[in-house]
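Changelog note: in this version the structure field was regenerated for every chain. One regenerated record is shown below for reference.
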Amino acid sequence: GPLTLRDKYAPNYTPAKMTIVAVDSVAILATVILLLYYIWQNKSREKIVAGVEHKRDVEFADLTDLENKEFRYKY
């Protein structure tokens, strides 16, 4: 923000550019980590649900994603 866009850094504003690259890199890394976590969770849930019978209207039950064994992450 305002601390990286100072007049003394003009015209290149190197600290601002470095800040933008750092923040975007962290956001991309967090997205990739979440994607890998979702894939891992879906695979582990497939192993658990293999022998479990489907419960009727389970999507309307007040369950968290950890309690609902039929829940799948979408990505």
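Spot check on this record: The radius of gyration is 22 Å. Helices lie at 14-49.
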